Amino acid sequence: MAAAENYPADLKYHSEHDWARIEGAEAVFGITWKAQDMLGELVFFQPPAVGAEIAKDAVYGEIESVKAVSDLVAPLSGKVVAINEKVESAPETINDDPYGEGWLVRVELADPGEAEGLLDVEAYKQLLSEE
């Protein structure tokens, strides 16, 4: 069952519909409810390798739905320290719980100050209303 539309206030949002949950020197990344809704049923997740360096605003992997293939855009820079293996084997988990069980990667942040350039929930909702 697909998740209901929501945008948690504790997350930081990227304009490309990716989110980051900052946890000290690390962050968890995922895609927003809007992104998974636009894509439809997800069928494949191609993550980066653990240990890979990813850069803010750069593509770090892709997800595929029955409709399209979409790039994942890193909201922040850092080194991948974990990949959600559940999503690798069951990508539809993102549709069911994009902010919980459907997280994608955990990253050790290169520059925690980059988070200041991301959108808070109100700014993200404003962006959605303008699309």
Show the helix and strand layout.
Elements: E1 12-13, E2 18-23, E3 26-31, H1 33-39, E4 42-46, E5 53-54, E6 59-65, E7 69-73, E8 78-83, H2 85-89, H3 93-96, E9 105-109, H4 121-130
Antiparallel strand pairs: 1-2, 2-3, 3-9, 4-6, 5-8, 6-7, 8-9
Describe the structure.
By secondary structure, the protein is an alpha+beta fold. The chain has a single domain, classed as OB fold (Dihydrolipoamide Acetyltransferase, E2P). 20% of the residues lie in helices and 34% in strands. It is built from 4 helices and 9 strands; from the N terminus they run E-E-E-H-E-E-E-E-E-H-H-E-H. It has helices spanning 33-39, 85-89, 93-96, 121-130; strands at residues 12-13, 18-23, 26-31, 42-46, 53-54, 59-65, 69-73, 78-83, 105-109. The strands form 2 sheets. Strands 1-2-3-9-8-5 form a 6-stranded antiparallel sheet. Strands 4-6-7 form a 3-stranded antiparallel sheet. A hairpin with a 3-residue loop joins strand 6 (59-65) and strand 7 (69-73). It starts with 11 loop residues before the first strand and ends with a helix.
